[in-house]
């Protein structure tokens, strides 16, 4: 599974979903789904906009975690 750290990053900077959406141009619904980790896919331009806005690398936003504990792929 892919873990999204957007909520942690936003919390550290005391940002709201609407602030990030407005400043990055990313759809508010997309930011909300990433924040709550319910997104099933994401466009590369969204990742790029978030990385530029937060001055971070893709690996700072997303992390791969093995599902080996559950036995699924």
Automatic annotation (TrEMBL):
<dbReference type="InterPro" id="IPR001387">
    <property type="entry name" value="Cro/C1-type_HTH"/>
</dbReference>
<protein>
    <submittedName>
        <fullName>Helix-turn-helix transcriptional regulator</fullName>
    </submittedName>
</protein>
<feature type="domain" description="HTH cro/C1-type">
    <location>
        <begin position="6"/>
        <end position="61"/>
    </location>
</feature>
<dbReference type="InterPro" id="IPR010982">
    <property type="entry name" value="Lambda_DNA-bd_dom_sf"/>
</dbReference>
<dbReference type="Pfam" id="PF13443">
    <property type="entry name" value="HTH_26"/>
</dbReference>
């Amino acid at each position: 599974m892919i873990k999204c750290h957007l909520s942690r990053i936003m919390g550290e900077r005391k940002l709201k979903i609407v602030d990030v959406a407005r400043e990055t141009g990313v759809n508010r619904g997309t930011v909300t789904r990433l924040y709550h980790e319910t997104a099933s896919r994401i466009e590369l331009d969204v990742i790029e906009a978030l990385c530029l806005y937060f001055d971070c690398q893709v690996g700072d936003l997303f992390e791969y975690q093995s599902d080996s504990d559950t036995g699924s792929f």
